[in-house]
Amino acid sequence: MATQSSANSQNKKKNNKGKVKWSNLYTFSCFRPPPRLAEVGQPGFIRVVFCNDPGKHRTKPYKYCSNDVTTTKYNVITFLPKSLFEQFRRVANLYFLLVAVLSVTSLAPFSPLSLIAPLVFVVGISMLKEGVEDWHRFIQDLEVNSRKVKVHIGDGKFVDRPWKVLRVGDVVKVNKNDYFPCDLLLLSSSYEDGVCYVETMNLDGETNLKIKRCLECTLRFDEDIKFSKLKAVVKCEDPNSSLYTFVGNLEFGDEDELNSSYSLFPLSNSQFLLRDSKLRNTDYVYGVVVFTGRDTKVVRNSMKSPSKRSRIERKMDYVIYVLFFMLLLISLIASVGSVQYTDQEQTVEQWWYLQLMYDTDASFDPRKPFVSGFLQFLRALILYGYLIPISLYVSIEVVKFLQAMLINNDQQLFDEMSGKSVEARTSNLNEELGQVEMILTDKTGTLTCNQMEFRKCSIEGISYGGDVNEIVRAASQRMNIDIESYRFNLDGDESVSTPRDSVEMVEISSDQINESKNSILDGEHDVKNLGATGIKGFNFRDKRLMNKMWVHGSNVWDMMMFFRVMALCHTGIPVENEEQSGSHKLKYEAESPEEVTFLIAAQEFGFQFCRRTQSSMFVKEIDPSASEVEREYKLLNLLEFSSSRKRMSVIIRDEFGQIFLFCKGADNIIFDRLGDGGRTYQHATTLHLANYAEDGLRTMVFAYKKIKDSEYEEWSSSFSKAKAIIGPEREELLENVSENIEKDLVLLGAVAVDDKLQDGVTECIDKLAQAGLRIWLLTGDKKETAVNIGFACSLLRHDMHMFHLSLSRDVESKNQLKAMKDDILNQIKASYQVTTNENTKEDPFALVVDGKALEIALTNDIKDDFLQLAVNCASVICCRVSPKQKALITRLVKKYTGKMTLAIGDGANDVGMIQEADIGIGISGMEGMQAVMASDFSMPQFRFLERLLIVHGHWCYKRISKMILYFVYKNIVFGLTLFYYELYSRFSGDVLYDGWYMVMFNLFLTSLPVISLGVLEQDVSSDICLQFPALYQQGQKGIFFSWKQIIGWMGNGILTSLVISILNVYILSPSAFRKGGQVVDIAHLGVTTYTTIVWTVNCQIVLIITHFTWIQHIFIWGSIFSWYIFLLFYGALPYSKREYKLLVEAVGPAPMYWIVVLLVVVISLLPYFIYMVIQRSFYPMDDLVIQEMKHGRKVVVDDEMWLREKKSSRKATHIGVSARVDAKILYLKDQLHKKRMFIIKSTTNSPIRRSITINTLENRD
Amino acid sequence: MDHKNAKKPSYSRFSQQELPAWKPILTPGWVIASFITIGALFVPIGLLAWSASDNVVEISDRYDEACVPDDFNSNAESFIQNPDTKKTCIRNLKVPKKLVAPIFVYYQLENFYQNHRRFVKSKSDKQLRNPEDENDLHSCYPEANTADNKPIVPCGLIAWSLFNDTYKLSTRGKQITIDKKGIAWKSDTKAKFGSNVYPKNFQKEGLIGGAALDESIPLSEQEDLMVWMRTAALPKFRKLYGRIETDIEAHDTIKVEIENNYNTYKFGGRKKLVLSTTTWIGGKNDFVGVAYVSVGGICLFLAINFILLYVFRPRRLGDPSYLSWNRHPIN
Question: CA-to-CA distance for A1027 and A1004, rounded, in angstroms?
Answer without folding.
Answer: 38
